[in-house]
Amino acid sequence: MRVAPLLVSAVRRGMSVFTQRVNPVTGVVDWEMQPETYDYQQEVARSAYADMLHDTERNQKYEQGLKAAVTALRAAGRPVHVLDIGTGTGLLSMMACRLGADSVTACEAFRPMAECAGRILAQNGLSERVHLVPKRSTELTVGPEGDLSRRCNLLVTEVFDTELIGEGGLQTFKHAHQHLLEPGSLVVPSSAVVYAQVVQSAAVRRWSRFSPLGSLHVPDDVSECHGAAAVHDLQLSQLSSSDFTALSQPVPVFGFDWTNRTPIVFDRTSVARVEAVNSGTAHAVFMWWDITMDPAGEVLLSCAPYWAHPDTQGRTGSGPEDIPWRDHWMQAVYYLPREVRLRRRDEFNLVSSHDEYSLWFSVNDSEDVPVPGEVSDPAPICLCGLHVTVSRTRAGAMNDPRRHQLYTAALEQAITPGCSVMVISDACIYAVLAAQLGAGRVYVLESSRITRRALEMYCRDNDADDIVQFVDPESVQTTVTQPVDVLFGEPFFYGSVLPWHDLHFWYRARQLDGLCSEKTRTIPHSAELRCVGVEYRDLWKIRAPLHSVEGFKMDLFDDLIESACQVADSECEPHPLWEYPCRALTEPLSLATFDLAGGAPADLQSTTNMEITAPGSCNGVALWMEWILDPAGQQRLTTGPLQAPRPGQQIVWDRYARQAAHLIREPRPVTPGADRLRCQFSFAAKTGDLQVKFAVESA
Ligand code: SAH
Ligand code: ZN
Fold first, then answer.
1. Cα of 4 to ligand 2 centre, how many Å?
2. Which of 85, 154, 475, 582 has the most CB atoms lying inside 10 A of its own CB?
């Protein structure tokens, strides 16, 4: 499952718990120590448990699989001893009880979840029937005094992520077969298949491959870097058909037999001989998997995007709404280390590999068909530095022609021959452009040493290395003595989580007041925080109460989420909203304007009513920043909607930024004229703390 990448990831060090918090003033991600009573509620709330439990197809197919396995054991005259690894809320154990298992043992490695399971089992009257052990499966003991009095003969488990094996499932299954299960045990699910489809896609490629923009040349070490092996999980069904060209059919590249009749191995490479279905350049592989739940392999759960999904086959004109939505399992993109030109009808080799936790792929157009079992293909390693320091979203922004055009126009307007420029942004290549446009000196504040090395390569490659000077943020005052004519920021900082965290630029700029004069041009000149009331099609499910799941009471889980949300330090979460469709129910509103060129940050506060202008269920608000680059307000860079949102219509979002999503806990139907959305906004200049609150009201 994808855990919300938030301010709140916690780690345990020694006896104390630390949580992460972004400080917009310093731009630094701080670790805050929490009292020992801190119970990880936040972690549970922000994780994907709720969305997973809303996944009705998943829940029902697990029960179908269990039912078939129990029936098969009974038919063979065998008892049914169930082991549920990673029980979470206890759901699968409760299903096993309902199906009449003779014994059920559940284990759970994550303490707060194990405690939650204990309470949920009690509320459903099943404490006596499920033996709950708050341990990792690999720590379970078997024997008269052990956690298990005997080995079990039916394993049910859901330890899969978008990459299938990223949560350590291979080790979990292997260990269970060796130590916890009888030989020949049944397993739900019984098997899995991983699919790969080779594609050409300029849009997708931007998230990984650094390419020249205008006059900016990319050093070979960067443009040809093999990239990092890290999975890029995303909602593939939200790409439009014009975003990519399929160069192959979906190819089954790995099978996994969870019953261990074909033994589970950690390291494998497979080669498929594939016919190109179109001509084009192989940029990336789309990946997804399916699992079969029952022993006979008839109950199939597929994570395919809509165009390859079993539910849509043989139908034309299908779309994302024709398949079940889920966020805890998505699809993934793997960028190819070497891009290869393919011709329609020619055959090529698709090389797929995995180790204990991850997958990677490569493509070659060799005419030789490799000998199975004799190929090994090491995982790609980033040697340029950028693929490990910048996120996929940031890489996308760095390769985005729309941004490039706006930054270029703003710099062209501001730069005069010989002027001095200060670049205040992380992973920013625009120092090079400033030099090309005639600046005499360009200072760059870059906080990562690794990125700095990559940026130095950009400078050398573009003959800008004698103009551009990297400055340590701590020693600006002593290094930079000459007045600064242009302060430039995209702005972007590694520490930013929510869109407004990039206002850190403002604080940085003010620290340089001593180097600036009235004539100093600040880019961006100002910024706006904007929002729109929306109906999210699916995103609401990640926080909505469950009440019950397949007939089992889940209120205690809802309470846990609810109380965690109440102490949450932010009402908004970062999401790439292009992956999560929503319709506008109001006109967009400018919540606040920040005068970046005009002076020091000042406190701001407002309450505004937004009229509902389209009917629907107002279940959320979307927020984003717009950066106004020039004083005349002509050059506006939105990180939100690419076209003005229209009431009732789907919003088209910038794909190379995360927006902020606020979810309304108790949404209700709204009507134009009868309802409105009340927005409260406050900004505390001293701490950089920005708060928003929303409520749906009758007009
Ligand atoms: N079975 C539940 C929860 C699935 S989420 C359901 O289907 O609704 C997966 C859970 O497995 C998580 O809570 C995770 O903490 C736990 N987990 C993963 N690997 C584990 C292991 N080897 N032993 C115990 N728990 C594990
Ligand atoms: Zn790299």
1. 25
2. 154
